[in-house]
Design a protein that fits this description.
Elements: E1 9-14, H1 16-21, E2 33-36, H2 38-46, H3 53-69, H4 75-79, E3 82-83, E4 98-101, H5 119-133, E5 137-142, H6 146-154, E6 158-160, E7 178-180, E8 191-197, E9 200-206, E10 218-220, E11 229-235, E12 239-244, H7 263-273, E13 279-284, H8 290-304, E14 310-315, H9 331-335, H10 340-349, H11 355-369, E15 370-372, E16 386-391, H12 398-405, E17 413-418, H13 434-442, E18 448-453, H14 460-468
Parallel strand pairs: 1-2, 1-5, 2-4, 5-6, 7-10, 13-17, 13-18, 14-15, 14-16, 16-17
Antiparallel strand pairs: 3-4, 8-9, 9-12, 10-11, 11-12
Domain PIN: 10-150
Protein name: PhoH-like protein
Family: In the N-terminal section; belongs to the PINc/VapC protein family. Belongs to the PhoH family.
């Protein structure tokens, strides 16, 4: 791998998938130069047709390139590089990087064993030619394709992943939504006040620890003795107001017949049932109860409390195995095979003593309140007074997540469910998933809440499989 430590200049050669993943990648390299091989433009042209998110991104890239080329008066201006404006932050100085296009045939020395006319090989040949021609520059190939990065490294080309969409350096740093208080927490406080309001108990605490708290973060004291479970209502650098939460582990506090089986489930139900929280994210392994708790809270608030007019459930249609092809019927009928989790949980929630007839009547009632929608038709819509559940949200990109959340109108609550260790979408990882993105960006907003469910409650068989397989 050729890396010139004395070189101060960097030239980034972009692969097609980087632009397909993030159209604004052209403006994300600050003062460094960007090079686009001709084969990348050809691949972008082939990918521009369609209604998928990738096709929309490609068309956006084409518009960006067209706007930039309007600045170039002639071919000499193109050969010398087109200045790239900085659109990331208007407060920082304008970027001094330039955009270069491949304007001539480049003969690169590739091993004869590599198959001839593949697009990846053409990009590798361009990178090798640039390395040989610009000895004072570090040429770096940027690609989301792991195999292309491996081939580049073998051929001596410096290759990197596209890191700008990475939310965190390590997924272990992701906000968990709850924290355990130290054993001497109450003794270390500078001041403590308590009061009741509308049957709710509040505490105002002052101390060093509160500066690390977030709005609607759940806190609890260790052990069973003097155990306290509370939610942070507001906080600053020195003081915080906390409120004791409901205990949904008791039968008399059940939600649609469901009681919490552990502390994290109790935290989740408190967030789901709080009318002041408009956005909730639940993370957890399979069997932790994400969908069941959310559906129970949604049905209670829609049918009993009349807080929301309808439940809308959607998810990303990414198959685990082979695709089964086109599905007949309406939008809802097409989505039904993907909603097995919904049907399974409705069976648990639909407990009635009225026999088969009573069970069918209750099931018909629930189906009238729950609507299944496809993500493909969400753009441009506005949902008023709805309880929206986005399942398998870990397979969404940050841009797709923004598109969905901005559909919310007045009185709407959105709940995102997912397991970031089960991502089925290419070019997404635990640190770049849209679910990780919203958890990190919403943690400071006073009308959002997050909790990570830690313990599976499905069955002893499922728990053993999750831990040992």
């Amino acid at each position: 791998m050729i890396k010139r430590p004395d070189a101060t200049k960097r030239l980034f050669v972009l692969d097609t998938n980087v632009l397909m993943h993030d159209p604004t990648a052209l403006f994300r390299f600050d003062e460094h130069d960007i090079f686009l091989p001709m084969v990348v433009l050809e691949e972008l042209d082939r990918g521009k047709k369609g209604l998928s998110e990738v096709s929309r991104n490609v068309r956006q890239v084409s518009r960006f390139l067209d706007d930039l080329l309007e600045q170039a008066a002639d071919n000499d201006a193109i050969n010398s590089g087109i200045p790239l404006p900085s659109v990331i932050n208007s407060d920082v100085p304008q970027a001094s990087g330039r955009l270069f296009f491949q304007t001539r045939q480049m003969a690169g020395e590739l091993p004869k064993e590599l198959p001839g006319q593949l697009a990846d090989n053409a990009i590798l040949a361009v990178a090798i030619n640039l390395q040989q021609a610009q000895i004072d520059t570090n040429v770096i190939l940027v690609s989301k394709d792991i195999n292309l990065r491996i081939k580049a490294t073998v051929l001596g080309i410096c290759a990197e992943d596209y890191y700008n969409d990475k939310v965190l350096d390590d997924v272990d740093l992701l906000y968990r939504g709850s924290s355990e208080l130290k054993a001497d927490f109450w003794e270390d406080l500078n001041r403590l006040e308590s009061w009741t309001e509308d049957g709710r108990t509040f505490y105002q605490v002052e101390g060093e620890v509160v500066k690390d708290w977030y709005p609607n973060q759940l806190i609890y004291s260790p052990g069973e003795e003097r155990a306290i479970e509370a939610v942070v209502r507001n906080s600053n650098d020195t003081t915080a107001d906390i409120e004791l939460i409901h205990d949904y582990r008791r039968e008399n506090h059940s939600v649609w017949g469901i009681t919490a089986r552990n502390r994290e489930q109790n935290f989740a139900l408190n967030l789901l049932m709080d009318p002041e929280i408009d956005f909730v994210t639940l993370l957890g392994q399979a069997g932790t109860g994400k969908t069941l708790l959310t559906l129970a809270a949604a049905l209670t608030q829609c049918i009993e409390h009349k807080r929301y007019g309808e439940i809308i459930m959607t998810r990303v249609t990414v198959p685990v195995g082979e695709d089964i092809g086109f599905l007949p019927g309406t939008e809802e009928e097409k989505m039904t095979p993907w909603m097995g989790a919904l049907m399974d949980n409705l069976e648990v929630l639909n407990k009635t003593d009225g026999g088969d007839w009573g069970r069918q009547a209750t099931n018909d009632l629930l189906q009238r309140w729950i609507k299944i929608r496809s993500l493909n038709f969400m753009r441009g819509r506005t949902f008023l007074n709805r309880f929206i559940i986005i399942d398998e949200a870990q397979n969404l990109t940050s841009k797709q997540m923004k598109t969905l959340i901005t559909r919310a109108g007045p009185g709407t609550k959105i709940v995102c469910l997912g397991n970031i260790s089960q991502i089925d979408t290419p070019y997404l990882s635990e640190t770049t998933s849209g679910l990780t993105y919203v958890v990190d960006h919403f943690k400071n907003w006073p009308h959002s809440g997050h909790i990570t469910l830690m313990r599976g409650e499905r069955s002893r068989l499922a728990d053993f499989a999750s831990e040992n397989l």
